[in-house]
Amino acid sequence: ELGDFKARVNRRLLQDTSPVLASKYGGSPGFYHGVASGSPLPDRVIIWTRWTPAAENDEVQITYRMVAVDDTFDRSELSTGQAHDLLSSSSSKTGTATATAASDWTVKIDVDSLSAKTTWIFGFEGPGGVASRTGMTKTAPAVDDDSVEEMNFAVFSCSRWESGFFHAYNIAANLDKLDFWLHLGDYMYEQNVAGMESARTGPEWALDPPNELSTTNEYRARYAQYHTDEALQNLRARAPVIAIWDDHELVNGVFATGSSDHQAATEGNFSVRVNLAARVYLEWMPIREGSFFQDTGRSCCEKQQ
Question: How many CB atoms lie within 10 A of CB 182?
């Protein structure tokens, strides 16, 4: 049964649209979707970026650097060359990862052996010395740390591209105190705009792709579009996220064996769709995946005994 499920996924991939390449942004490969971090623990945190390649078969070596900073660090330096210089000269954590088509050229690194309750800055470098923006993250306090008197966080949900209001992300990104932010679901919407009010009008805000999503590269393209938003990029670069999906990251009204919106005649097998959508969510979100999907062959909508 598992082999048949994988075969259906592979057939679906062969029918898919093209991935998002550098030609979409003027032709030069680079970091067009920012940096992010998430799933903070006392001794580790996920850091994330996406390299946009020139060609579908590109495999790219990405270097990451990370350094701890104290309370005197000026956040305004994140948008200047000063933070990049600090990373280049005194990184305490560095390594490499390979960005490939298999994960849509997203890079997620679970950086471990970190000090608890510590602020870190981080960044990435691609071929030719092309550098990402610099991000900031923070590890959680130790479980037995009784000195913690407060936590400062922001909460979001239901973030629909065409509805706008993404400026709320910038408000949180500019808070003086922000330990982490929560996204409680519907981070991205898979639907088209039919029948929906749109606060963002004009061709520059048109959904990409314009149809309801059902294939891997369609879901990937919508996430890529969302992450061109400057306010969302700013918040993802500002503090770690703790996130959980709801239904729209997969398909509206999803339940164990179907969905109120899924149309098998035009959108294919439900299990294939919902699992590829889950896979893309995990590619683009800087969150720890746990063991459920790792080398188990499990389906995200499989009923567990």
Answer: 14
User: pTM of the prediction?
Assistant: 0.89
Report how many helices (DSSP H) and strands (DSSP E) the chain contains, helices first: 7, 12
Site of tokens 């979707």: 33
Judge contact between 16 and 214, C-beta under 8 A.
no
Residue 297: exposure state from Cβ atoms within 10 A (0-12, 13-18, ≥19) = exposed
Largest CA distance in the chain: 59
DSSP-assigned letters across all residues of 231-290 = HHHHHHHHS-EEE---STTT-TTEETTEESS--HHHH--HHHHHHHHHHHHHHHS-----
Q: What is the pLDDT of residues 256-267, one digit of tens each?
A: 888 888 887 788
Side chain identity at residue 298, one-letter code: R
The residues, ordered by sequence, that sit 6+ positions from 130 with a Cβ below 8 Å of its Cβ are 29, 30, 31
pLDDT one-digit tens code per residue, 32-59: 999 999 999 999 999 999 999 999 999 9
